[in-house]
Amino acid sequence: MYWGKILHIDVSKRKTHIQRVNEAWLKTYVGGVAMAARLAYDNIPKGADPLGPDNKLVFAPGVLTGLAISGATRTAVGLSLIHISEPTRPY
User: How much is the pTM?
Assistant: First the structure.
């Protein structure tokens, strides 16, 4: 069960804040991959250096996390990856 809260942690500044989200948002981005992708999209600026301070690491629990079901403890991780706009050619 989600509690309608997302914890943001800034390790470089040693600060935290809680983002409250409504039930409609939680129903739209149901756990795991969908939630991690949306949070990464919302929080990582376009063109951010994948190894720079603007990149974020997102951990999102799966829908069934916490239940006594085999394989239910899946957690998704979202982040910005290195992007190459044009393929490089060796010749």
Answer: 0.71
